[in-house]
Description:
alpha/beta
Amino acid sequence: xxxxxxxxxxxxxxxxxxxxxxxxxxxxxxxxxxxxxxxxxxxxxxxxxxxxxxxxxxxxxxxxxxxxxxxxxxxxxxxxxxxxxxxxxxxxxxxxxxxxxxxxxxxxxxxxxxxxxxxxxxxxxxxxxxxxxxxxxxxxxxxxxxxxxxxxxxxxxxxxxxxxxxxxxxxxxxxxxxxxxxxxxxxxxxxxxxxxxxxxxxxxxxxxxxxxxxxxxxxxxxxxx
Length: 225
């Protein structure tokens, strides 16, 4: 019988690939998406499409008001999404987002009796976000072992981050092998209501470069090139 795993599914390219990898490894996948007040809310509809296409056991969308905290161009409309590369941690970083989302996934995993969480974080194409690093994933695993009933009783949850050291091209090639339809995904930080990408934000630039490096035609729908 397949073991259950909770997969964080944003609706973007990386999380869709992580979901496909979890399925290939034989897990019964429960997809978790979070409506946290992001301006690119079209990614949630993309998550629904990806979850259906990849045949998850269950897909839940949880609502969380990170827009009430602000501090990020993805949650505060007063902060513009950068249209050019910047130095340091960019304003598209959402404070503690991955810590919060992994905690939600950990809670659901414990209810499901699952010892496995998959997340599509990637340190090479992360724009410098601190919560996409291997050190963060390792630290969260240690926290999970201390903070849960399952961990205290000797069955701690493992956090799988299969893409964490891959280039975007490697991720895309793996997804193509696993028949991920990247045309269903949304990566753009300011996608319009129909999911069309801007073509100029950091997420769009990384995605475009990844398809070019992989030698794969870019299926992204653009609205404002």
